[in-house]
Amino acid sequence: MNKRLNILFISFFIILSLSYSKELSLKEKAIKIIRNSIVVDTHEDTPTTIYKGVDISVRRDRGNIDFPRLIEGGVNSPVFAVWISNNMDEDNPEVYALKVITKTLKVIKENSKIAEIAYSVDDIRRITQKGKIAITLSFENSSPMHNPEYVDVFYKLGIRMASLTHMSTNYLSDSATDKEKWGGISPMGERIIKRMNELGMIIDVSHLSDKAVEDILRISKAPIIASHSCVRTLAQDVKRNLPDELIKKIAIRGGLIDVNFASFYLDGTMGKKYKEIKEKYKEKIKELERKYPTKGKEYEKAIRTIKNNQKTEYEKVKPDLKIVVKHIKYIRDLVGIEHVGLGTDFEGIGNSSPIGLEDITKIPDLVEEMLKQGFTEEEIKKFLGMNFIRFYKQVEKTRTVKL
Predict the structure, then answer these.
(1) What are the DSSP E strand ranges found in 179-333?
(2) What is the pLDDT of residues 234-272, one digit of tens each?
(3) Could you tell me the CATH number of the domain that includes residue 119?
(4) Which domain holds residue 94?
(5) 127 & 257 share domain
(6) pLDDT (tens digit, 9 = 90+) per residue, 15-62?
(7) In terms of pTM, does the model score above 0.70?
(8) Are residue 112 and residue 159 in the same domain, yes or no?
(9) Which of 124, 193, 129, 130 is nearest to 165 (CA)?
(10) What's the CA gap between 194 and 216, in Å, rounded?
């Protein structure tokens, strides 16, 4: 009897040990997959951070990205998006763009031991094989590219991806979050798209209206990307997300939909929740201003407490990282794993990313969750970067002009 009990106890502890090892091995497997991959994040607003004078060569306790954290997270092929506010559309946006690009290139050069600018797929492969970070530049809002000649100028400066507009309709395209002016893209927008095709520049449709995306699908000879977008079916109140019909059309043409980490794009109820919390604390701040009209030390102390409480409430209503996997899985099931990728929007979404995905170091945790939910190693490698490399190579093949 004792012998039988001993065997049962030993069997139990072996099973328990194997189960524990399996949990540990998922994290290890996630890290191994990342280390053996080109990991592309197709939208990081880091150039704005750089332009503000932030030193991204050192690890910070604010923001989402710097070089040490890119290395820790295993993201070795980020796309640095040069964001142009729509407020600048009619105010020499090319001047601002030149300043941001110049400063970004300077920072990359100053950190040449760990990072290089990438101008092509071959560059990405070459640079990452050396153990460095391969940085591609993009435009978020192409208002600096007034005409095809300006496309050439910015191509020479390193821009390899661009979206026509951002949150507002401009002279190139209608935005998903503004009134319709062109019924899609403008005549100049069409000329810009054609020139981008000729140069092998990637066309990004995130932030564009549905009709604008339809126009680009009709005009472009190359596949297109939504560099930082989510699924509208899963967050129906978010017009900026893509409907199933457009996801299918982008995929049929060989394109990509890369998932954004902003909670208010991932969860359609977040906008309303954030607004309610903001209004609640807006009233509290007004009360404080009435109580402390001179805004002295007591006011400053009270306002800090209120803002900390507001931040805590925001955190309580945020989803966790599983919601990102939900969007990835939805796109995979709809059009195939070959058409989905990573597009965090870090440095552009503040602290609104899901719990567990606070910065770029958390990518291994996302991969671990994908493993838990049944994604294969091959599927994850495609999601992390293989899809983008294949897609980018297709775009390069449409190039007809060399500058």
Answers:
(1) 202-204, 225-229, 256-259
(2) 998 899 999 999 999 999 999 999 999 999 999 999 988
(3) 3.20.20.140
(4) 30-267+320-397
(5) yes
(6) 445 544 455 589 999 999 999 999 999 999 999 999 999 999 999 999
(7) yes
(8) yes
(9) 193
(10) 10
